[in-house]
Write a structure and sequence with these properties.
The protein has eleven helices and 13 strands. By secondary structure, it is α/β, with parallel strands linked by helices. It folds into two domains: 118 residues, 3-Layer(aba) Sandwich (Rossmann fold); 125 residues, Hypothetical Protein Tm841, Chain: A,domain 3. Strand 9 and strand 10 form a beta hairpin. The protein is globular. The chain starts with a strand and ends with a strand.
Length: 283
């Protein structure tokens, strides 16, 4: 029996990937200049980054309940099981809303096997989990096998983030404006990581060379089995820096595959242009 896969725009995968693999798409929402947009549908990340560089502060919100319900209903009518892998509940309320909408849909379609997973992942890390699930769907795994495997995958996934300009985190209330000003003067680059679905500070590095060196050290400490895994790199209006990071990772670890994609509007609205993130599996 076919298992249908659903994900949302915070996975930071190209829309073409969703379309080519028949994956249901749920857009999160972004507000900019008093107008509301659907992430990756009516606005793209480049527009967000340009606006932020011009001093605007976009705001984000979870996917609307009706949007989520409509996607679920679409699959309920097929009679096949469906699995929604959601953006981390630590960063968005979309997962909780999806659980409520799933219960409503199941009241109307009691035989519909619909499952909702809190990935506790973000950006292309979340995207790697979606790709993993898609491969399992193609291979004909059952929904139980896919659900179990995806949960294990997400638990093993490392997220290492760095931002180029602390000002954007200050605007969003993540750090004080004084810290952002001093950090900028000293060329301090913060490293952040995901813990239980939330983005938390790891350490501060001065200068890009030391930053790249430290990221490689963390990958050596935490990662492994490189020849059998895909590394993800997401970036925000700094593709050249991401390519430099990609080349360094290739030379050091020779992973099976490295995929790159721009950070989307949702996460980009908080992190800002210049953000770089690396995703890989733990040892």
């Amino acid at each position: 029996m076919t298992v249908h896969l659903i994900a949302d725009s915070a996975a930071d995968l190209p829309r073409s990937y969703f379309e080519e693999n028949g994956i249901g798409f749920i857009p999160l929402r972004v507000s900019l200049s008093d107008k509301e947009f659907e992430d990756a549908v009516t606005i793209d990340a480049d527009q967000i980054f340009e606006a932020m560089q011009n001093g605007e502060t976009p705001k984000t919100s979870q996917a609307s309940p009706q949007t989520i319900k409509n996607v679920f209903l679409q699959y309920a009518e097929t009679g096949d099981p469906a699995l929604y892998i959601a953006f981390s509940s630590g960063l968005s309320g979309t997962y909780q809303t999806a659980v409520m909408m799933a219960n409503e849909v199941k009241e109307e379609f009691p035989d519909f096997d619909l499952r909702v997973i809190d990935s506790k992942c973000a950006s292309l890390g979340y995207g790697l989990a979606v790709r993993h699930a898609a491969d399992l769907c193609i291979n004909g795994n059952t929904i139980q096998e896919i659900e179990t495997s995806v949960k294990n995958f997400c638990e093993q996934l490392e997220h290492i983030f760095t931002v180029d300009d602390l000002t954007y985190l200050a605007r969003g209330g993540r750090i004080s404006k004084t810290s952002a000003f001093v950090g900028g003067l000293l060329n301090i680059k913060p490293l952040l990581q995901m813990e239980d679905g939330k983005l938390v500070p790891l350490e501060k590095i001065r200068g890009q060379k030391k930053l790249f060196k430290r990221i490689i050290e963390l990958m050596k400490e935490r990662g492994g089995d490189w020849g059998n895994q895909t590394v993800g790199i997401s970036y925000a209006a700094n593709e050249e820096k991401a390519i430099d990071m990609k080349n360094l990772i290739e030379d050091t670890f020779k992973p099976k595959e490295i995929i790159m994609h721009s950070i989307g509007s949702t996460i980009g609205s908080h992190a800002g242009p210049g953000t770089l993130a690396i995703f890989f599996l733990k040892k």
